[in-house]
Structure formats: structure tokens, C-alpha cells
Specification:
Helix content is 9%, strand content 40%. It is mostly beta strands. The strands form three sheets. Strands 1, 2, 3, 4 and 5 form a five-stranded antiparallel beta sheet that branches. β1 and β2 (23-28) form a beta hairpin. The longest helix has 9 residues, at 77-85.
Length: 178
């Protein structure tokens, strides 16, 4: 398989997902920007710019895209049920982002590691909905997102500076700090 450089115009890209074969969303860890690469060219304006911490293991850490037309095309009972239960319409695109959110500015006061769901509409990520709010540390903040074959979103949350809590599903451990 031949690998081809798509672009060298990105600042510390850490994750990508595909809207279509030649339509890619890529996230920059330290800038908090999600950029779009269309037909091999990075578009000038980011589709989203969020405030992130960028120390060590912090930043824009995970991305996953759910395109409901893929659910409709496969038309299994599971996919139809999933679409109905989540009030999803045909041809909607949902983008999930996991990041170390800061208040007001990049590298401001850390608010936490957050998982948001966005709508991808007219080339922008809009209508953020907070799905998960966890504490953040300097290291081991996790962030990998994956949509499973059951259409559920799976999130790697890390151990947040080796703090063992129930967030990692470890039996008989304490709850995460507030």
C-alpha cells in the first residue's frame, strides 16, 4: 500500500475521522482546532475552535463521527432501534470530541476532561451537548473515541495522573474527585 502525504499545514494533529473518502476532520491537540481536509486541501477556516489545556497529556484528544446515512444504509434492526432511541434523523452527522476544556482561553483554568456531541451543519460543528465531565490531570487523560459495531460510543478515560478511581471500572476504588 502506498502512503501519500496529504498536508503539512497542521499543528500537532492527533486524530482524524472521515466524513467521506476525501473529506476528513482532523484535530490539533494544542490549538483546540478541528480542521477539514477536502480533496487533499486544508480549508482556511477551522470547523471548530475550543479552549483547551495543552500541558503534557492535555488537549484535544479524541474524535469520532457518526453519520446516520450509514445507519440507514445498513438498515439492521439494531441500527433502526438506535436511530429511534436517539432521535436521529436520516443524513445527520454527529461528531464526538473529547478534550481538556479550559475557561475562556487556551491554557486558562482547567474545567475538566469533557466529552461533547456536535452537529456537523454547513461545514461547522455546532450545537455542543456535554455528555461526560471528568477531572483532568497533567498526564494520562485518555481521549481515544471509537464507535462500536453496536453504534455505542466507547471512550478511553485514562487514569488521570495514576489516580485509581471507579472511572476506570476498578472494583472497590473511590469515586473520582469533584
Amino acid at each position: 500500500q502506498i502512503t501519500q502525504l496529504t498536508t503539512d499545514e497542521l499543528n500537532l494533529p492527533t486524530g482524524i475521522d472521515f466524513l467521506a473518502e476525501d473529506d476528513i476532520l482532523v484535530m490539533e491537540k494544542n490549538t483546540g482546532q478541528v480542521k477539514r481536509i477536502l480533496d487533499g486541501k486544508v480549508l482556511n477556516e477551522p470547523v471548530l475552535d475550543v479552549n483547551v489545556g495543552s500541558d503534557n497529556g492535555q488537549g484535544l484528544l479524541g474524535i469520532a463521527i457518526l453519520d446516520t446515512k450509514d445507519l440507514t444504509n445498513s438498515a439492521t434492526t439494531t441500527n433502526i432501534k438506535f436511530q429511534e432511541e436517539n432521535n436521529l434523523l436520516d443524513n445527520e452527522v454527529k461528531v464526538f470530541l473529547y478534550y481538556t476544556e479550559t475557561k475562556d482561553i487556551d491554557n486558562g483554568n482547567i474545567l475538566g476532561n469533557r466529552l461533547y456531541k456536535y452537529d456537523f451543519i454547513d461545514g461547522k460543528l455546532v450545537n455542543p451537548k456535554l455528555l461526560l465531565d471528568l477531572p483532568a490531570g497533567d498526564h494520562h487523560n485518555g481521549g481515544v473515541l471509537e464507535l462500536g459495531p453496536d453504534n455505542h460510543l466507547y471512550v478511553v478515560v485514562g487514569d488521570i495522573d495514576s489516580k485509581r478511581t471507579l472511572a476506570q471500572n476498578i472494583e472497590n476504588n473511590k469515586l473520582p474527585p469533584d
